[in-house]
Amino acid sequence: MPRSSLVRIHLCAAVGALALITTFLVSSAVTDLAGNGADVHSLRQWIVFALPVLIGCLAAAALTGRRLARKSKAPAIRRKQRRMQVVAALGIVVLVPCALILDVLTASASASAVVTGLELTEMLAGALNLTLLLLNVRDGRGLSRPRTPARSAPMVHSGL
Fold first, then answer.
1. Does residue 135 lie within any of the structural domains?
2. Which domain holds residue 14?
3. Domain assignment of residue 46, yes or no
4. Cα–chain center distance at 97
């Protein structure tokens, strides 16, 4: 696949993942603060239905990023790879289980300390994932900027 296609796929996947994570976080915060039990459960169902799209975006971003990086040892690429490993681990260990459990627990209208604890855990882990992905965007932009040669200091003529 041509490099330009990989770059476009990588960018679209990353933007999709960021948009979904941001939507999940903002809608969860607003619904938890201002919504009723039915609103919260409806949102939790929506998040569970959207999880495969988010996982696909993250996987596509990771796979195309790996392909674009090839065997590079650049520090920025290593940082991006380490961050993606943390993002994946948080998703598998914390976020997906929280989303599935909260979908089940919010079906019954009773709010409990368990639901609140899971919601806080999910919000913190989601915010951390969003932060890590935004750091990857920053580093990716730095990698994609055109390289300009360093400017040399102008020669000063002393007149002697």
1. yes
2. 3-140
3. yes
4. 17
Q: Quick check: 105 and 118 in contact, CB under 8 A?
A: yes
Distance CA 53, CA 110 (A): 29
What are the residues whose beta carbons fall under 8 Å from the beta carbon of 125, sequence distance 6 or more?
Answer: 90, 94, 95, 98
Q: What is the Cα–Cα distance from 152 to 135, expressed in whole angstroms? A: 31
Cα Dmax for the chain? 89
Residue 62 lies inside a defined structural domain of this protein: yes
pTM of the model: 0.83
Query: How many residues are recorded in the chain?
Result: 160
Please choose, from the candidates 106, 104, 98, the residue with its C-alpha nearest in 3D space to the C-alpha of residue 124.
Answer: 98
DSSP state, 108? S
**H-helix or E-strand containing 122?**
helix 113-144
pLDDT tens across 35-84, in order?
888 899 999 999 999 999 999 999 999 999 999 988 888 899 999 999 99
Q: Taking a C-beta distance cutoff of 8 angstroms, is the pair 75, 123 a contact?
A: no
Sign of CA dihedral 99, 101, 107, 112: negative
Q: Encoding tokens for residue 28?
A: 């969860």
Count of structural domains within the chain: 1
